[in-house]
Amino acid sequence: MDKETVQPNSWVALRLPNETYRVLQVVPNTTISLGKYGSFPTNLIINRPYHFTYEVQDKREGETFARLRVVPAKELNADDLADTSAEATEPAEGDDVVAAADGEELTLVDESGKVLIRSNREIIDDSARQTLKPEEIEELKRKGASAGKELIAKLLLSHTAIDQKTAYSLAKYKLLKTKKYIRRFTVLPLDVPMLAQWLLEDRDASKILEMRQEMMALVGCWADVHYGGAATEDVGASQGGRWLVVDDTGGLLVASLAERMDILHPKLEEESTEDPAAPETTETNAPTDEMDQDQPQTTEATDPEQKQEKKRSKRSDFNVPYVNRNTLTVIHGQTQPNLALLRYFNYDAANANPSPPYHPLDTNLMDISWLQLLSPDEDDAYNNKPPEATPEEIATWKTNRRGNYHRKRRRWARIRHVVDTTRAGGFSGLAVASTMDPISIVRSTVPLLAGGAPISIYSPTIEPLTQLADCFSVARRAAWVSSPPPEVESKTAEELERWEGSEEFPINPTLLLGVTIQTSRARRWQVLPGRTHPFMMGRGGADGFLFTAWRAVPVEGKIEARGRFKRRKLDT
């Protein structure tokens, strides 16, 4: 039910009548302002289903807020379901039907000769035919009568050339005025596709490398990202379902992959069992009955016992919270990864010490810098272990010093765990969306992948990917096998995987197979007789390209194959 209704402090997307979106957080006991469309309290949409269309009503006498009305589907689709005069009735048998000749336009009149609908052959100046003055329109907008419907009706009635419009022109005119003045909005869940569309069309698309929804989906598909299984405490068990990620889109790629792995959204069932304050919060926000009134007494009685138990079961500073399956490891080049977009899914990437209830990404998302991956000995956070202190000495410290001591020890333990497990390799795939040179990324990450692991690399332009694909071409691989470089003849297979390359062979060309480059773009088309073409209103920008391949483990030694075949008798 939590995924079907608007929850407190969750992020939603509001679709306005002008087909734009407003992304905001639903904070209880606050007011949401939609500009010219009005404002309303957030509590009116909390615990209400998604995809409902609301109408901001006029403020009642004595009230300081506007109420909302759920617009029924019949009212929303009234114009689409209404029968026009041309389509509602079919001519009966024997009736005379007047048809227009080629190039001739007709005017519809009734029996008395009154003009009902004219052709749009004459150009009509809407501004000259509208008798309502701008001052009167602004006054009606300030009054906000009937959520803008009264203003639209007066605009239609005051138009002197309304009878000269065709049915299509009249419907178009009404639609334009409705989008401009009607005070309605639709509440939509903020999922990854909606967030990507909002960032691409209404925000700076370059911050997400102009990655469209179809390319984002292809990256996850070709990297074979899926639910990797539940975590186990067995150290010797197979640690499958671990993916490497290089994300320069602010966390959009990580959010897309985490949604595939079912670790993007918090589990409310786990929150209710782990957080002891959850029943108390539910009581204050929801109506109570006789059974609920006894609950606070039980909670108060058990609170001291829970506090004592919490004090006794203190977690060690070196107890790492990460799991060994169904994880994402983000490689970044800064002090901290740029995962700002994950805040729209109630995850704070900057909080190193989260408190319960935990988000799934707190235990399934790890980050490591390029320095820690390639040269961990040069990283101070990895090498410098915090000094030890006795419990008696810690007891004499102040609260701030004691907190800093435990925080540094926990941070050092997390970094050691992430660096050691990442450098051990065995990852199930690699997904990249970065502005870095893809050759350098592949050279450093391919040795960490398991055999047969898929690779998908997104780039807004094709040139970096063609250079990478050329490193694994058939001709370059044949040249490597026939006459390998002199500097690799005495190297082992493990050393060849981590070979830094040369000018002729930037990477070992035998590490990847099935190298391809592809692109895909969904386009909307207008399909009319003789006028079929793509819509001209689509945004431009980069199409985006995708590099895909599979990790190959080169065989050691020489391969020999021998077969025994039976001779077939040839029919003469």
TrEMBL record:
GO MF assignments:
methyltransferase activity
Q: Where in the cell is it found?
A: Nucleus
Q: What's the domain of life for this entry?
A: Eukaryota
**GO BP terms:** tRNA methylation
* GO cellular component terms, A-Z: nucleus; tRNA (m1A) methyltransferase complex
- Give positions of region: Disordered: 267-319
Sorted alphabetically, which keywords does the UniProt record give? Answer: Methyltransferase, Nucleus, Transferase, tRNA processing
Q: Where is the composition biased (Low complexity)?
A: 275-288
Entry keyword annotation includes tRNA processing: yes
UniProt record similarity statement: Belongs to the TRM6/GCD10 family.
What PANTHER family does the database record attribute to this sequence? TRANSLATION INITIATION FACTOR EIF3-RELATED (PTHR12945), TRNA (ADENINE(58)-N(1))-METHYLTRANSFERASE NON-CATALYTIC SUBUNIT TRM6 (PTHR12945:SF0)
What is the name attached to this protein's record? tRNA (adenine(58)-N(1))-methyltransferase non-catalytic subunit TRM6
Q: What species is this protein from?
A: Fusarium pseudoanthophilum
